[in-house]
Amino acid sequence: MATTILEICRVPAPPGAAADLSLPLTFFDIPWLHFHPIRRLLFYDYPCSKPYFLETVAPKLKESLSLTLRHYLPLAGDLIFPLNSEKKPEIQYVAGESAVSLTIAESASDFHHLTGNHARDADQFYEFVPEIDPVTDESEYQRVPVVALKVTLFPGRGICVGFANLHCLGDASSVVGFIKAWASISKLGGDEEEFLTKHAESLPILDRSVINDPLGIDTIFWKVIRDVPLKSSSFPLPTNRVRATYILRQADIEKLKDFVLAKKPGLLQVSSFVVTASYVWTCFVKSEEQVDDDDVLEFFIFAADIRARIDPPVPASYFGNCLGYGAAKIEHKQLVGGEGFVIAAEAIADQIKNRVNNKEEVLKGAENWLSEINKMKTIRAFGVSGSPKFDLSSADFGWGRARKLEVVSIDGEKHSMSLCKSRDSEGGLEVGISLPKARMDAFAAIFEEGLRF
């Protein structure tokens, strides 16, 4: 391995941050209990020496992380999973004990290669991903940390900041909020007062009473999930995959929108997300060599932040999960046909308009979500992770905008894409894909060819 671990430490919130905290999981959190950790890497251009990194950068990151945890105490806590009990799971923070695991490392790997868009061996990225400590079995419950962090120096080239979190801790809105807060306090040299002056309105709200659950859906879900104990997470190695990034420039996106609207002039919700998701989904399905049944259904699954879309609405800075989802479905033969892209755009736009953006529908049948999630394990589905809305790459630790974001956790899913704003193309989007090499080659050719019209 080209990576050397220099230090593993535990970073607590500052003394006197708060008393003990127990945060119960809601019905939005509980379905994610057995989901793999979300793993993200941010690569930054920052050519510094190892001595400067160890003497200046690393201490500054630790100090700013501690100050950030004052406002984000759940990240220093553990998930408590009760055994043989009616008690429900919670995230527990214990003052004076709870802390976040932070690994400091150095790598001799090729920074330029890792941050390219070309197809790269997916396995190599796991050297920079933090590992969440194993599950601890107690007599009445299981315990596991909710977060792990890793910072890797590429001497003279750059820095990678790696994040791993349990999905039951919170959705992208919540976790990205933490990452940006840590980056901001770090950039401000630990000036917490200035941070609070600028970001007071976006500080996380931990109050679970803002989640309305009159049907007791959390209890319904827990009765199903409690019978399956937690398992320690592990990396999906070898992945037998490569990772590649595809850029859709603003001109490409506008061209795709115009193409859809020329065929379907009355269609609403023809957003950048809709045409990007539709285009990538159709390219992905077409890249498969052979399908036995042309009539088989293909699904596109996407999550959506519904804080403002439910009644009563949930505050934008609520920390936790607050996701609804859409599921577009189309027969395989239609999706790979000449009108496949337009049909896909219509199906996804319909899910956004009539389900995700519809206050009457967005939580309809929520008590059945667990059984629906289990069904999704057996279908032919393509998903999406991340959103340009949260713009994680803008998290600036004082080194500028991130050069590259890699959502490593899509390796552990059947098939999914990551989506974020493009660094190099104003108004453009970056799509991350993880596939076996032969299929990636086929996908790349179809993706490139499809934009020539």
Automatic annotation (TrEMBL):
Entry coiled-coil feature ranges: none
Domain of life from the UniProt record: Eukaryota
Record key words, sorted: Acyltransferase, Transferase
UniProt GO molecular function: acyltransferase activity, transferring groups other than amino-acyl groups
Gene3D superfamilies: Chloramphenicol acetyltransferase-like domain
Name of the featured protein: Malonyl-coenzyme:anthocyanin 5-O-glucoside-6'''-O-malonyltransferase-like
Organism: Sesamum indicum (Oriental sesame)
Lineage start: Eukaryota, Viridiplantae, Streptophyta, Embryophyta, Tracheophyta
Gene: LOC105173409
